[in-house]
Amino acid sequence: MEKRNLTDLKTMIRAIPDYPKPGIVFRDITTLIADRKGLRASVDELIWPFLSGDIDYVAGIEARGFILGGAVAHELGLGFVPIRKKGKLPWRTIGKEYSLEYGVDTIEIHADAISKGDKVLLIDDLIATGGTADAAIDLIRESGGEMVAAAFVVDLPDLGGSRKLKDRGVRVHTLVEFEGD
Ligand code: AMP
Fold first, then answer.
1. Which domain covers residue 170, as residue numbers?
2. Predicted model pTM
3. Is residue 172 part of a domain?
4. What is the CATH number of the domain that holds 62?
5. How crowded is residue 66: how many other Cβ atoms within 10 Å of its Cβ?
6. Best CA proximity match to 44, nearest among 81, 2, 78, 5
7. Is 135 inside a domain boundary?
8. By alpha-carbon position, which residue is closest to atom 16 of ligand 1?
9. Which residue, by CA, sits nearest to atom 9 of ligand 1?
10. CB 69 near ligand 1, within 6 Å
11. CA dist 68 to 73, 98, 124, 127, 170, Å?
């Protein structure tokens, strides 16, 4: 019988040195999600802590968080809420500015996507410094939502993002880690 484990998932993630700039190792999940077993196993592993959970919505961060978040929402039988880059959502929005390594960016959510007391699971492909997820959590909480947990395929623990989210009282679920990035 063929077995799968999380080491298999890790080997399916392509490492691209010096992208998008020198010194960064880009962890490319396109090779993972192009593999039929890789995509299935990633979604299965992302959802298992939440199968018996009390969640109302899955929110995903543009763009790789849409691929995984849509599949997670479908598997959990929930609706999906997109969190997008500034100017992409057509209805009334609330936005949050966050810091990147160079400069700032803004993400937005539809102002009526989440109602007071809705329980939300946040999904993205990877957590590094946590700046993006931190801003997404602000948007969900400002919408009145309750942040149940955040789940990512990849954690870069040395950059401190998952620690930062835990310090804000958010449960964090990650599948594989790359240390030293
Ligand atoms: P951060 O806000 O620093 O936690 O960065 C997380 C966001 O940037 C996620 O949406 C990731 O897709 C992307 N990202 C940051 N660092 C990397 C990396 N080394 N490889 C791939 N994606 C990354």
1. 52-177
2. 0.96
3. yes
4. 3.40.50.2020
5. 18
6. 5
7. yes
8. 128
9. 126
10. no
11. 9, 22, 7, 14, 19
